Here is the input.
Amino acid sequence: MTIDSQQKRLQARLANRPKWQSIGLIYAREMRDQLRDRRTLFTIIVLPIMLYPVVGMLLMQMAQFTRAHTTSVCILGVEQVTASDDSTPWRSNTPPLLRRLDADAQPNPTTAPLGGNYEFLPDIAGEQKNLALFGYPSSALGEPDEVARQVTSWVRDGVFDCVLDVRAGIGQTNGSTTATAASDQTAGKLPGEPDTMNLDATDVGSVKVFFNIASDPSMVARGRIESVLNRWRGTWVRDRLHDAGVELSVLDPFQIQGIDIAPKRTRETAFWSKILPFIMLVWAMTGAFYPAIDLVAGEKERGTLETLLCSPALRSEIVWGKLGAVMSFSMLTAVLNAVSMLLTSVLVFQQMGIGPGGTSMGTPPLAPMLWLLVALVPLSALFSALALAVAAMARSSKEGQYYLMPLMMMTLPLVMLPMLPGMVLSVGTSLIPVTGMFLLVRSLIEGHFADALLHLPIVVMVTGLCLTTAMRWAQRQFETESVLFGDGDHWELGAWMRHLWQDRQRAATPTLALACGVIVLVGLFFGKLVITEIPQSMSGLSRLIFFPQIGLILAPTLLMATMMTTSLKSSLRINSVPWRLWPIIALLGFALHPLHVQLATWISTLYPLSPEAIAAMTPFANQLGSANWLGVLFLMAVVPAVCEELTFRGFIFGGLARNQSPLRAILVTAIMFGISHGVLQQSITATIVGLLLGWIALRTGSVLPGILIHLTLNGMSVSMERIADLNVPVINQLIYVGADGAQYLPLYSAMALIFTMTCLLSLYRRTQGTGSIHPLDRIADRVSGPQPVVDPAVTNPTI
Here is the structure.
């Protein structure tokens, strides 16, 4: 290469490099336009300032409705539980449940502000003070059927919130629980009662509470009555134990006293460290949506986007300028909402006495909360880039709102996941986007600096990778004319179906590929819900494998490939592979398996299986271990390899790889392939393996190598323990059976890594373009027709 050509390449590279001056001009333009929009100013500034004070005022006004309202209770057979003034005294040791109020007597507001004819004794009522009790003696009741209808009518119509029937459950003679003969003769039978009211001396009486589950006051009254009855029943138990000469300490041998050693400031910090990051992340996400829609889809509607794209500014400069504006509004929205919510909640909750442990929340520590601003920068940039990329696909602001809502629903679980109990910062949680940053900020706020510093590199790496990917996606959207200037015609289902049938091509389009993936994943989701039992026979195991693999994965793929394309072979990428590649592919499958096992072990360490999941999977593993080896090999290796590879690395990969999008094909198919596995640990492992299989499918231009490697990995996985049981000296030097099953020795795993890298390098070199057309390019020729002759080094797909 001459010096002149090198200078030209350098000048071209410098010319395509974004300039900060141009980015600043575009940023200032977008900020000026947005600040002139009254809707934006109201959403970003006015709404946060007004929203939380108004909500706080409403909470304080509604606090009066949270007080305990008085509930009315009717008691049948009050003579059974009320102290009598006649010659028959109440039991000497056990106090009665009720006492009668005189007609002109006023309830004592310090003990029981009751209304009506009766009240609970203060020692028994405890904190249940808002009860209005009305009683009827057994002699005042009518026939059983009439009483049953009357009670039902009272509770249903709200005359009484609940009815308490004590006629058959409480006795006064010799401490027994039998009802008196007089009460038996006059008691009416209510719904759910036994056929006779007479109880033997050894029977236990029942106190019935009639309530209406559809009525909240009735449920509240039921809870209050049962609380009082439980306390009174305890009095009866203690009384009888005392009469029998049993020490009462056996009922309560020791007291449990919880002592919180955390200082008050620490408790307040822990409370705010969970609330404020959640609020800021949610508002950072939502604050980026409206500006992103207006800066892209809104400009399409106003016709100003074409003017901006015709300017000398580079597409990357336009993306960076718009991203800066969206990010500014995202951060401003998050900060203003957090500050307004913080000031309002501190004042309002202090007045209402709400806080951790029933105490006031106090004021949050301001200095540690500054870590939120540090974390807000990358997360706002991530949300802004995603919103900008998605908004670029919309032709109008209304359509942009439809697109951004699924994005919000997919991102929201990552924001809510750290709020779950027991979620702490670890290596596993640090690898989760957004969640790891949330937990890192919480650790910094709570003062766990050593733990935060340990996991900081992982969080930064994951966040940086996600941000870079989102930025490249957004920039790619602005560089694609079909995305920015798609036709504005209304979509019609009939015309679209006719287009699919009349304009069929030899391979799937990206839209058909994505539709196939969605259909397969949705079918697997509902199909796995149907399967609730582990089969106990080989035939049942066969149905368990064939139903999802053939019925839910392969069948939709074959149907779409047959109906929507003109060539089943091309659409499934069943292309021949040079014979010199097959030995490398075969050796690669065996070399990958130790790495696959080690990867699964590491993932299980980062995200351990729950005991319930292990218990549910154990019968299935035992069934595989006891079944015929050839049958298990066919079901667990051959069938999944063929069905899954034809679907994911065949039809879906072929459609997504079109339009020179190999990276999109590899990533999307790997993610779909991982999601198709039901267990999280298996999904992560399958996604990583799917990336490698996608690269191999890209280099070879065929689905057949992936089938062989997939078959080898699954076959070795189900055969390892059987191979280890052979007790062959050579095998014993490679495989051992431990507590977690068959494992490879570390030395052999290290050797397998070297051998795998050698095979991959050899495969890369043997598929390198050397003047001949790459197999993937041959597929594109058959799909799109003759292509102009270009330099093979330029058309060679790389990743």
About this structure: The first strand starts at residue 71 and ends at 76. The radius of gyration is 37 Å.
